[in-house]
Amino acid sequence: MIRQKPLNQQVMVITGASSGIGLATARMASSAGAKVLLVARNDDALAQAVADIRQAGGTADHLAVDVADADAAQRISAKALASLGPIDTWVNNAAVALFARLDQTTLDEQRRVFDVGYFATVAASLHAVEQMKATGGGTLINVGSVLSERAAPLQGAYSAMKHAVLGFTEALRSELQQEGAPIQVTLIKPHGIDTPYPEHARNRLGKPAQIPPPLYSADLVAKAICFAAANPRRELLVGGAGMSATIVGNLVPGLSDWPIAKLFGRWNQTTDQPPEPGTSDNLFEPRSDGRVASNQRRFVRQSSLALAAQLHPARIAGGALVAGGLAYWMLRGRMHRTGD
Prior knowledge:
alpha/beta; Rossmann fold; 11 strands; seven-stranded parallel β-sheet; two-stranded parallel ribbon
């Protein structure tokens, strides 16, 4: 039987925690009382993030390591155990990316995208599962993407990697269910999120990169991750636009090819806003880091009804019934007054 602890009783590992979704999650989880180990390549950015968390009253530590290293998972778990205690939730969030046509992408670049985003996730997941079995259970959270379901042009390598993450996560979940392991496995699938992702990605588009709208706040993904750490969910999709694209893409994939090709064109994935100095292209080497959001001034959605419906379906359904009943009562009263 899977038993998830309350968040304030947990030790949580988060990879890719020096910026974006990982950093937002570390801040949110620590503010809720979790002890957090932040993992990424940039030691300075991690140290600053940990200092900020501690100053705010949280408990955190960090480890600077490339998750693609062969012994990364072992080093991460050893650090967590020595510094914070046995791991309750492990969040695989680290990834690298590039904006380029597939015929302008080298195999070494594609291997690197997979080494960080897929093979490191596989190694960490398998190691985390064994550690959690030994301590009575826990939660594994892998961060996929709406691109796990529907590939985007000019982000082909990243899309392929996220497809692989989805397939691996579903297979691992099934195998753990077969053996009755007390491990909750959740896949988080964000839509376009306002993070330094386009600034960090290797870029061959001829102009600075951007994520096509609509954009959602990284805090929404952090909210989904923190919720999943303490509540059983098979998967959570962040952003109503991504949910719509996923449903349409799965039901009528042929009809969705044309709008995807148009919406993810070069015109909608580039901007005139250059990256901050020192942040560009972290594919093989860490760069300047420490931001949750991108440096681009764009409209960012701070809420998602679709996510709220997944987190609290009964509450949303109840609210809809109340609203429907109220609307019916008001309409009925108006009809009676009209009849009088």
